[in-house]
Amino acid sequence: MDAFFASVELLRYPQLKGLPVVIGGGRRKVDELLLRGPDGTEERERRFIPVEDFPLLKDYVGRGVITTATYPARQFGVGSAMGMMKAARLCPQAIVLPVDFDEVRRFSRLFKSTITDIAPVMQDRGVDEVYIDFTDVPGGQREGGRVLARLIQKSIFDVTGLTCSIGVAPNRLLAKMASEFNKPNGISIVYEDDLQTKIWPLNVRKINGIGPKAGEKLAGLGIHTIGELAAQDPQWLIARFGKSSGAWMHRVAWGRDDSPVVTESEPVSMSRETTFDRDLHAVRDRAELSAIFTDLCERVAGDLQRKGYVGKTIGIKLRYDDFKIATRDQTLDRYTQDAATIRRTAGLCLKRVPLDRKLRLLGVRVGTLERVGEVPDGPPEPRASRVREADPHTRPLF
DNA sequence: AAGCAGAGGTAAGGTCTC
DNA sequence: CCAAGAGACCTTACCTCT
User: Fold this and answer.
1) Cα–chain-centroid distance for residue A264?
2) CB-proximal positions of chain B, under 7 Å
3) pLDDT in tens, chain A (398 residues)
4) Strand C lies under 7 A from the Cβ of residue A67
């Protein structure tokens, strides 16, 4: 029996269809707006802030990127992860809405619970995307999975009012690519035999895992389509991309993927980071940086406590004004979720990083996590760390 | 005593994803 | 001049222990 996998991607904010809108800037709450139904017929509409009352991209000031954009806005070349200022040049008349994370999470949970009610073997892939294993779902094999996909799609729409695209294929890799074929509200089935006709003509960048860097490198080698990638000698790829990546590339180009749908996983790290309104200097803006730094530590600690985790590797991340990134971390002898401990350790990390350039971002991370209550004891005799102890006479920088 | 192999941990940087 | 935030995973290097 074939295994079928589906990759589902939610289209958010369909209610804004028709208007060029970008989501991304600002912090203002707009729950009511995001809740408006497709027809705007519900009574709570009276409380809605009309979309038209929000600022236009041309009037937007400040940093940040677009989280997502409606299709009318995308017509102008605006898209996810694009800088707001650049987007403003492309589509100044677009309306800017802030992200409402609470509301996004609410819909995300609704979306996922609807799916697991029908097909319990589901893997999280972020707020708006999942993999589903159709194999053991009754009716999951009918018409190559199309029947079940249709049921899931309809249920999601009934419950959330949101559309989604679904791809069904013999494995996760192909299912993910299939889901791109019929956006934003379609179903596409890809069979084993469709590899050459439907997959090989696509650009290598369509492969989940080949990003800008690998795409550029492949292009430089004259490889643009997945078919061209499939035609390469695996050893030739391994020589250029490493043992793991090279072999992987050849495998996926042939549509081969045996990765399972993973229904449960433990977090590996938790972090908080923030980009400042303006670049800050370690010395000149010491007080401001210190406050931000402490706040980040407290927020990570809060996340750990709320979710019931402790961690033992404390790290920092800096992005300089030239966009270069530096990270430092230090592993403690004992697990912690305490803000002060995190703050102290992160402060030590900070001393090991160059601070001559201005900074645009600061981040704090806690890794090597364990669930509270399942924490191994610390070593009876703490081993000597490679990291030099801080000079007690040196005042902390932040 | 010195050297080596392998496992596992730590650290830093990088890539990719949504 | 412009380029978020959070997280996973990979590579490389180095260290320690056996």
Assistant:
1) 18
2) 9-18
3) 456 777 777 766 656 768 888 887 644 444 434 434 344 444 444 445 677 778 888 888 778 888 888 888 999 999 888 989 999 999 999 988 888 778 788 888 999 999 999 999 999 888 889 999 999 999 888 998 999 999 999 999 999 888 899 999 999 999 999 998 887 788 999 999 999 999 999 999 999 999 999 999 999 999 999 999 999 999 999 888 888 889 999 999 999 998 889 998 899 999 999 999 999 999 999 999 999 999 999 999 999 999 999 999 999 999 999 999 999 999 999 999 999 999 999 999 999 999 999 999 999 999 999 998 766 555 544 444 444 344 444 455 66
4) yes
Closest CA to A167 of A184, A205, A154: A184
Footprint of strand B on the protein (CB under 7 A): A 81, 125-129, 176, 207-215, 313, 324-331, 349, 352, 368, 385-387
A287 CB-to-strand C distance under 7 Å: no
Handedness of CA A353, A358, A361, A364 (dihedral sign): positive
Which nucleotide has its C1' atom closest to residue A383's CA?
C16
Q: How do A359-367 and A370-371 pair as beta strands?
A: unpaired
Provide CATH code, domain A200-253.
Answer: 1.10.150.20
> In this structure, is the CB of residue A269 within 7 Å of any atom belonging to strand C?
yes
Give me the residue spans of the domains in chain A.
Answer: 4-99, 102-193, 200-253, 269-371
A290: Cβ under 7 Å from strand C?
no
- Is A64's CB less than 7 Å from nucleic acid strand C? yes
Place of tokens 């050459």: A196
Question: For the segment A221-270, what is each residue's pLDDT rounded down to a tens digit?
Answer: 999 999 999 999 999 998 888 888 899 999 999 999 988 899 988 999 99
Instruction: Pick out the nucleotide with least CA–C1' distance to A367.
Output: C7
Residue A311 CA to residue A370 CA, distance in Å, equals 6
Give A285's contacts (C-beta < 8 A, 6+ positions apart): none
Do A255 and A195 contact (CB within 8 A), yes or no?
A: yes
Which among A103, A129, A273, A370 is annotated as catalytic?
Answer: A129
Assigned fold of A4-99: MutS, DNA mismatch repair protein, domain I (3.40.1170)
Nucleotide of closest approach to A64 (CA, C1'): C4
Task: Indicate the class that CATH gives domain A269-371.
Answer: alpha beta
A288 is a catalytic site residue: no
Helix (H) or strand (E) holding A124: strand A122-124
Q: Which nucleotide minimizes the distance between its C1' and the CA of A243?
A: C11
Instruction: Return the CATH number of A102-193, one of 1.25.40.340, 3.30.70.270, 6.10.140.1670, 3.30.360.10.
Output: 3.30.70.270
